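Weekly modeling sync, notes
Attendees: S.R. (lead), two postdocs, one rotation student

Agenda item 3: backlog of single-chain predictions. S.R. asked that every request posted to the team notebook include the full sequence so nobody has to chase files. The rotation student volunteered to paste the first one in as an example of the format we agreed on. Action items at the bottom.

Example entry:
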Amino acid sequence: MKRPALQSWAIVLLGGLYFFLPLLGTFEFSLRYRRGVYSFEAYRLVLNDPQFRATFTYSTLLALATIVVGVLLVVPTAYWIQLRLPGLRPLVEFITLLPLVIPAIVLVFGYLRIYNSASVLPLTSTETTTDLLLMFSYVALSLPYMYRAVDTGLRAIDVRTLTEAAHSLGAGWGTILLRVIFPNVRVAVLSGAFLTFAIVIGEFTMASLLDRPAFGPYLQLIGANRAYEPSALAIITFAITWACMGVIQMLGRRAPGQVVGPH
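Predicted structure, as returned to the notebook:
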């Protein structure tokens, strides 16, 4: 075997060890709940915990709502910027980067100050409206990832030619977005959706300060008070993450033929 090939395999091996060794150690530790024997007792306790199911279901529903609102907000915006307002792209990219620059704790204190029960729009006065506020907070938090994923997908296709062709056949703007543009950026949207899902599932600061029963605060609570269950939770979360990646890969492979063209 040639030296470059050996170096490549060595780098792959080191990367695999760096990635899998901590995971293997976490998994091995999670099996030590019973002294002297390996068991899945920590997993059983976690999966049978009603608070685990309640918080995970809550965060999953919130993540799905965040993805739907994020897609409805980002896809038309990125499409219009690409088609008619390319000069505004730097400004829009700057705005979408703000959630990375402004800490989440600053954002949530701003929300609490603006939307408290004494304000004109008291979104924190009831649980339902607080859930709504938290969902929109997550939309803002995931904006950098969703926008870049969709924008990259739109740059890979000839948006102008597709739009003009659809217009010449009598299609309206809604039909163009739903039946022409969206199928061609479906993989990019799925990538943004996966990143949004991962952010919402593990987010702690906003959910904790808004006092909502999300999965992130539950992870922190278990990590602070238990020994073996946090490791089991980490493995379960990792498995869920990889399952989501597998779903994205399957949906991406089943996507119809995309129209790729010069930009």
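Discussion: group reviewed the output briefly. Residues 64 and 230 are 25 Å apart (CA to CA).
Action items: rotation student to repeat for the remaining queue; S.R. to check formatting next week.
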